[in-house]
Amino acid sequence: MLHLNLARFRAEAERIDADCARILFDNLALLARDGDATRIRLLTRTTRNVATTAAGERLLHTITPRMAEIEDEIAALMEFRDKPSGSIKLTLSDHALESTVWPKLKPVLKDYPDISVELLLDSTFRNIVKEGFDAGVRLGESVEKDMIAVRIGPDWRLVAVASSSYLDEHGVPEHPKDLVRHVCINMRHETAGSLYAWEFAKDGQELRVRVDGQLTFNNSYAMIDAALNGYGIAYVPENIVERQIVSGELIQVLDDWSPFFDGYFLYYPSRRQNLPAFKIIVDALRHRE
After folding, report:
1. Which ranges in the chain belong to alpha helices (H)?
2. Is 137 exposed, middle or buried (0-12, 13-18, 19+ CB in 10 A)?
């Protein structure tokens, strides 16, 4: 019989091997053949230290790389419970959360109170396996090829907007190249650290325009607020600025030059897909036409 305190071992497995051994072997009991009470000695203990035997060292090195797989299989047994449970950790941008993920996630969390979700908001490209995330949300073009990718939202586009007071004072740009003579609100990429060059397309012609202005943000919502207050032209996702456009608080310019981008995808390694709680989250987020 094998007894494993998986949660405790998993937490301690990040430490040096000696600590791993101590936790592992404090939670392992192996019965020898024929079912008698003779135990395989895995540790040698003294009053001052604990060391592994040859058998213990072999077991430690064999089982440690398999802990993630073992944990997933144990979690999959939750399929037999009436109430799925588990903790899901996601990395995504604030725009992905507000426009796509949160509206779909809210009712699921009400229906499944034993499922908990941790959301880390940033726009950097993370190694989700190495950093302990269950999944990430990024634009389709950014998803690594070795990941399973599930579309969770439609394609969307960026739109250039400004307040009427700004346009009354500075005029309306008729072509993307006119933006170099305007005050614009910049966006800085968190991953590359560089300023975003505004991308435009029309009738097969593609342009990238580097703009200048008094303000730079790494957050689209802050850019919208700055545009509302007359600080210049902002280039932001259409689906989070529609209300201000409809109300007339912001005026859209260069509309026929605004291209569409791939929608958001949930991506994750293949080993996560069989966990019941994770499958519920994936199904809830999945994009349906």
Report:
1. 6-12, 17-26, 54-63, 67-76, 94-96, 102-111, 164-170, 220-228, 242-247, 276-285
2. buried
Give the domain extent around 10.
Answer: 6-75
**Which of 210, 152, 224, 220 shows the shortest CA–CA distance to 190?**
220
Question: Using alpha carbons only, what angle is made at residue 67 by residues 61 and 73, rounded to the nearest 5 degrees?
Answer: 140
Question: pLDDT tens-digit profile of 26-47?
Answer: 545 443 333 444 456 666 766 6
Q: Which residues contact 104 (CB under 8 A, 6 or more apart)?
A: 152, 284, 285
Please check whether residue 110 lies inside any domain of the structure.
yes
Domain with residue 199: its CATH number is: 3.40.190.290
Torsion of CA 62, 63, 68, 69, to 10 degrees: 80
Closest by CA position to 77, among listed 128, 6, 144, 147: 6
For 95-121, letters b (16+ CB in 10 Å) and e give bbbbbbbeebbeeeeeebeebebebee
Distances (CA, A) of 73 to 17, 181, 254, 275, 279: 24, 60, 53, 8, 14
Give domain status of residue 145, yes or no: yes
Per-residue pLDDT, 64: 73
Let me know whether 71 and 86 are in one domain.
no
Whole-structure pTM value: 0.66
Residues, the chain: 289
Tell me: do 222 and 271 sit in the same domain. no
Q: Look up residue 232 and give its two tokens.
A: 């210049």
The reply to whether 94 falls in a domain is: yes
Regions of the chain where pLDDT drops below 70: 1-43, 45-50, 67-82, 191-192, 271-274
